[in-house]
């Protein structure tokens, strides 16, 4: 194990040559910052969406045909409620209203706790409406008439992952806005007390009505994870950028070893440093550089994502036409951070130690002359 004096000498030598290591430090910090930011945003959004799905009933049933959604009625509710293992079935009104003046789609959700003439809107909806001076009352336009509804309140900012583009209305008002009949539903919420029976009951619902889609909580959570792991290929693009930057960084590190440092290693060998000492010296120096850059990159990413809410970068994942002022929930996946460390810091050290070892075992007289 290197002595205290040896470590101090390695650190002093590092600070002496700090300009040579500055480029590597900055590039590596940037790589870790980008990758950590993407992972933090992805994990945070996955966590919030997963929690919202877990708050829903066991199975969500939707009627589809040729890829389009069709209403459901009381007959569907009755038939599904008779399946063994189902404790309750709730019909839900849910759909989208086109706001032509802004060319936006609002998510309309039925909420029985609201009166017929009032509604609750999300933060993004509120901003879009305010731009056209809809502050107290909003007018829904459909093929038959204009429906005026009072804006009762704004949904809390903490619920923006779900409510940003949402309008909550009394179910009957929501039906009128969406052009549905009074006995129709957009989907069914099916509650199954026994988690082990959920998959079987979902299959029974599909057998009963082959045109419906029965999505369990597990399926919905799996879809969310898949979406945010591979969102539009953006993560892969960022990964390629980071990989190219990383190889530029490694090239810089190797050129440092084969440049002026080659003569430095030869002088140290002539002063009595053995090969093991040379490797230990380079290992200490580059461990300090890589670990400092890694910790700085992770810390900056944490502040950028969870303090400043990841401006610009979060829009890649949210993908909404409405401005979203979502507050990202702090979620840190230690396993993924360890993978960044494993595939970042370890190669960084290896690409420096191996050239240093190769020079150290070579002809020192030639290295000094060069």
Report on the architecture of this protein.
InterPro entries: ABC3_permease_C, Lipoprotein-release_system. Keywords: Cell membrane, Membrane, Transmembrane, Transmembrane helix. It holds the Pfam family FtsX. By secondary structure, the chain is of the alpha+beta class. It has two domains: 4-52 and 230-369, no CATH class; 56-227, no CATH class. It has 14 helices and 13 strands. The protein has helices at residues 4-16, 18-54, 74-81, 123-130, 160-163, 171-178, 198-208, 217-229, 234-258, 260-270, 275-307, 313-318, 334-360, 364-369; strands at residues 59-65, 68-70, 72-73, 88-92, 94-99, 104-110, 118-121, 137-141, 146-154, 166-169, 184-185, 187-191, 212-216. The strands form three sheets. The chain has a six-stranded mixed β-sheet. A hairpin with a 2-residue loop joins strand 1 (59-65) and strand 2. Helix 1 crosses helix 11 and helix 2 (18-54) packs antiparallel against helix 9. The longest helix is centred in the first third of the chain and has 37 residues, at 18-54. The radius of gyration is 30 Å and the shape is elongated. The two termini are 32 Å apart. The mean pLDDT is 82.
């Amino acid at each position: 194990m290197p002595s205290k004096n040896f470590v101090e000498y390695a650190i002093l030598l590092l600070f002496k040559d700090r300009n040579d290591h500055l480029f590597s430090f900055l590039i590596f910090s940037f790589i870790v910052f980008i990758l950590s930011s993407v992972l933090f945003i992805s994990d945070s959004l996955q966590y919030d969406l997963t929690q919202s799905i877990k708050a829903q009933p066991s199975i969500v049933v939707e009627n589809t045909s040729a890829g389009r959604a069709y209403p459901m009625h009381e007959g569907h509710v009755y038939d599904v409620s008779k399946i063994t293992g189902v404790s309750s079935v709730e019909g839900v009104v849910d759909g989208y209203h086109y706001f032509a003046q802004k060319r936006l789609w609002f998510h309309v959700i039925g909420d029985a706790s609201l009166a017929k003439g009032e509604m609750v809107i999300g933060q993004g909806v509120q901003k879009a409406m305010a731009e056209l001076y809809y502050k107290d009352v909003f007018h829904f336009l459909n093929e038959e008439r204009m429906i005026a509804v009072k804006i009762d309140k704004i949904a809390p900012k903490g619920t923006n992952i779900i409510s940003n583009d949402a309008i909550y209305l009394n179910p009957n008002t929501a039906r009128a806005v969406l052009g549905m009949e009074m006995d129709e539903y957009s989907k069914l919420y099916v509650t199954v007390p026994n988690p082990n029976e959920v998959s079987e009951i979902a299959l029974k619902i599909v057998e009963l009505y082959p045109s419906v889609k029965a999505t369990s909580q597990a399926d919905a959570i799996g879809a969310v994870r898949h979406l945010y792991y591979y969102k539009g290929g953006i993560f892969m693009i960022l990964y390629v950028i980071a990989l190219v930057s990383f190889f530029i960084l490694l090239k810089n590190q190797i050129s440092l070893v084969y440049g002026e440092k080659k003569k430095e290693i030869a002088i140290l060998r002539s002063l009595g440093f053995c090969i093991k000492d040379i490797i230990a010296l380079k290992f200490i120096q580059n461990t300090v550089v890589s670990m400092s850059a890694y910790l700085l990159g992770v810390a900056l990413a944490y502040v950028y994502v969870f303090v400043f809410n990841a401006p610009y970068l979060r829009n890649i994942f949210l993908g909404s036409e409405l401005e979203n002022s979502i507050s990202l929930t702090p979620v840190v996946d230690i396993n993924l951070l360890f993978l960044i460390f494993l595939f970042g810091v370890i190669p960084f050290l290896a690409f420096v130690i191996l050239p240093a070892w190769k020079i150290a075992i070579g002809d020192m007289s030639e290295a000094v002359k060069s």
